[in-house]
Amino acid sequence: MLPLAARAPEGLPLIYVGSLAKLLSPGIRLGYALAPEPLLRRMAEARAAIDRQGDAPLKAALAEMIRDGDLGRHARKARRDLLAALLGEHLAGRATFDLPAGGLALWLRYEGASAEAWAKAAGQAGLALLPGTRFALEGPQPQAFRLGYAALDEGQIARAVEILARSVPG
C-alpha cells in the first residue's frame, strides 16, 4: 500500500515524514521529511534550535549510503530475510524455497496439491498469488509461487505469510 503522499492531487501541499530507525537500527535516530521548500527551511531552523550539534558523521554516512544505493539494497535484504524467516516458521515441512542472493522475489515450492488450488484459497482469504505455471512457457509446470517482497513493509510481509499458511490446501 502506497503512502497517502503518493495519492495526493497534483499541486496539493503536503508533508511526508519518516524514520530510518526500523530499517537500520532503533539506535539510529534519523528521519526525513518531504515538504515544500519554504516549510522545509522553517523545519530545519526549528530542528537546529532544538539540537545544534546533531550527528554529522552519521548523517554523512547515511547520505553516502543513499547516494550509492546501499540503503535501498539493505532494505530489500532486510525484507527478504524477514520473509524467509516467516516462511520457515509458518510453512516448514509444507513448502521449500532457496534464499536468493539478490533480486526482488523468491520462489516458494509446494509439493502437495496444485499451486493453482493454493492460489485460489489464498485469493479467497485476500492474498493475490500467481502460480509458477503462469511464468513457465514450456516444460514441466512448477508447483511454486514467485513471492515479491521489495515493495512490501514488515507488516504486509507478515500478513501475507499468515494468509499463505492459513490457506494451504488439504
TrEMBL record:
It comes from the Bacteria. Keywords: Aminotransferase, Transferase. One of its GO terms (molecular function) is pyridoxal phosphate binding. Residues 10-163 form the Aminotransferase class I/classII large domain. Gene3D superfamilies: Aspartate Aminotransferase, domain 1, Type I PLP-dependent aspartate aminotransferase-like (Major domain). This is Aminotransferase class I and II. It comes from Rhodovulum kholense.
